[in-house]
């Protein structure tokens, strides 16, 4: 679509400014090319508005819903999955877990004394002042507050929508 047609369509639709409207009116009156395009656009516009809008019949929705009800219901997933495969997978995992527990209990030395001594482990010292300055803590708390407010807003919106 060129500039002339766009200007005339804006004129016909009434979406142009008053200054553009005056200029377009003057061009339509003065220029035969503008007048010809104006007449074509105006006749097309009147044809479009004169065309009847097709509307479905009153029982259209009812007929469509009845046809949908007549369609066969698809089979559920329970009937699509073979139960033997499911039981095979369950048996495999139960056998594997039982075998691992059997090997574990077989390798335990049951003859040890009843006392149990925990080995001593020394944890390395951790200087948290290098990593946790007040700036980092403030940033972390700020982000937590924003996330909390977002979740609280979602909760309130759900609650409001359910009422």
What attributes does this structure have?
single chain; 163 residues
Write a short abstract of this structure:
By secondary structure, this protein is an all-alpha fold.
Give an overview in words:
The structure is a single chain. By secondary structure, this protein is mostly helical. Among the domains are: 3-50, no CATH class; 77-102. It contains 7 helices and no strands. The protein has helices at residues 3-13, 18-30, 32-50, 60-70, 77-80, 83-107, 134-162. Helix 1 (3-13) crosses helix 3 (32-50) and helix 2 (18-30) crosses helix 3. The longest helix is centred in the last third of the chain and has 29 residues, at 134-162. The relative contact order is 0.03.
Q: What is the radius of gyration?
A: 40 Å
The H/E string reads HHHHHHH
Number of continuous helical runs: 7
Q: Number of DSSP strands?
A: 0
The major β-sheet equals: none
Distance from first to last alpha carbon: 51 Å
Strand content: under 5%
Multimerization state: single chain
Poorly predicted runs? none
Q: Choose one word for the global shape.
A: elongated
């Amino acid at each position: 679509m060129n500039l002339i047609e766009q200007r005339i369509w804006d004129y016909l639709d009434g979406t142009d400014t008053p200054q553009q409207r005056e200029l377009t009116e003057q061009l339509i009156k003065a220029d035969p090319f503008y007048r010809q395009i104006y007449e074509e656009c105006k006749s097309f516009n009147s044809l479009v508005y004169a065309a009847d809008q097709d509307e479905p019949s009153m029982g259209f929705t009812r007929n469509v819903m009845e046809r949908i009800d007549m369609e066969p219901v698809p089979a559920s997933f329970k009937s699509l999955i073979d139960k033997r495969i499911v039981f095979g997978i369950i048996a495999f995992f139960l056998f594997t877990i039982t075998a691992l527990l059997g090997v574990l209990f077989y390798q335990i030395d049951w003859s040890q004394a009843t006392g149990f001594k925990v080995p001593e482990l020394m944890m390395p010292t951790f200087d948290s002042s290098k990593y946790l300055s007040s700036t980092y803590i403030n940033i972390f708390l700020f982000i937590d507050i924003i996330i909390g407010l977002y979740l609280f807003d979602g909760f309130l919106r759900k609650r409001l929508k359910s009422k």
